[in-house]
Amino acid sequence: MRTEKRYFFLFIFLFLLPSCGGGGGGGDGGGTAAVDNSGTISLAWDASPDASAVGYWVYYGTSSGIYRARADTGRVTGNTVEYTLTGLSRGQVYYLVVSAYDHYRNESDFSNEVSGVAR
Question: From 2.60.40.10, 3.40.190.10, 3.40.50.300, 3.40.50.10490, which CATH number describes the 12-17+35-117 domain?
């Protein structure tokens, strides 16, 4: 059985969500600090021109070139793909790449890397 490597061309443009809310403060300054995993980063990119691409993986991590997590966009249609990563640490810099996959989950190479701060 031969597997075919598919090549998709992805150009990823990073758009960050504006900070919402704010607030905070208070507390007595003692005790342990809670981890704030309410951060988000929103991404948008041009869809792959390959008609067999049906979805995308968004890989991300806190060091350039090291992606310790990934998120599946699910089935995607249209010329522009938008996706928001959630559950990130606010204020943390993340490095992200995207790959496309087809119906059989054959995956493309990574897009160019972008970085952003979770808001």
Answer: 2.60.40.10
